[in-house]
Design goal:
Largest sheet: 7 strands, mixed
Number of helices: 6
Shape: globular
Mean pLDDT: 84
Low-confidence stretches: 1-12, 310-319, 351-375
Structural class: alpha+beta
Distance between the termini: 61 Å
Order of helices and strands: EEHEHEEEEEHEHEEHEEHEEEEEEEEE
Length: 428
Amino acid sequence: MKRLTLVFHLLLLTFINTTAQNQVTVMTYNLLNYPDLNVSRDDDFKKVIDAANPDLLVAQEMKYDWAVNTFLRNVLNDAYAAGDFIDGADTDNMLYYKKDLFTFVSNIPIHTALRDINQFTVVHKITQDTLLIYSVHLKASSGSANEQKRLAEVNQLRNVTDALPEDSRYIVAGDFNFYSYEEPAFQRLLDQSANGYTLDPINRIGVWHNNSSYADIHTQSTRTDSRPDGGSTGGLDDRFDFILISEGIKQAGGIDYVDGSYKSYGNDGNHFNKSINDGNNSAVGQEIADALHDASDHLPVIAVLDFGPAVSVSDENLIATYELKQNYPNPFGKGSGGNSITTIEYSIPNVVANKADQSTQTGEIASPRQVGARNDGGFVQLKIYDVLGREVATLENENKRSGVYQVAFDAAGLPSGIYIYTLRSGNV
């Protein structure tokens, strides 16, 4: 008779305090007229996406509405969802996102003479921070006439971003087709005469075309040979693809750019005027280099954003810090020799931090609070999440006066593993 053995795993939970960072990888990728019916590139795209593992994927050159789900099904895994697709006059922009990390709010088109620019809005599920993503694919080709067309498109974008509240958190990502920083459209994006300007997070400003000084950030073309999909050739010698950030993301607090995270994915700096898979590729290896070569004539660009909270201001005469202490005991549970209850301590200061308000209305960006303003408490949320960002329990969900508080959490019935707790206070 076959003997069956049952193994019982005792409860043992470990907590991570979310004053640690919530870092998100953003990728922008020109998919080259996806899907080109002359050749299937899904396997190549899948290798690239699996290796880079973006949390937000901003895509250009999506040709058809039905192609959105084809890419989702054949390239991405079950962790992703697709935003709303708007079919414009030419190829279109698209956003894919990790559904356990983000809530998709809207896709609003900004019409231009050639292609729509799209404003995608998402909300981070744990921090409730709102991020605006502008996906662009500007007019291609060199020459002053095309430069003026790019400028007209950027002016349409600036009409929108200039109307945003000061210190708004947004990025502008995509295929800009810029050959040089001297182009009027690029200068318009950086123009600080109004609030809606953007910044190059790596500050690599120059004449990018056919300039080996920028070999490590070139994104087009991945090829020197012709392909059935009809993409451009010529090797890597142009920085067409960018992720630009707002002043609000540059400044600490809220959503922040992580220094050193910006990359032309797969570019090791050793393929100037070459195919990305020509010889050794020290950035990604041969398999991914081949996939980048075959998938598109553009390299993707990635950057990391930190959604971690800003929690304090400095004032020697006042309690100025939101504090969320490590739970105790930790680890806890029967597997650690104790019971299933742990205690979490937190404090509410009597001044607010220098951090932009987060609105309860999804997608709204409110104005910054005044530094050092009095705050005798407010609405408090203390929640527990699993590592996939799913809410497990709500421990506090009410108005609290300033002070120090302790709350017990009974984890009986939860499986062993790592859990996250987060404190939000004020207008959240």
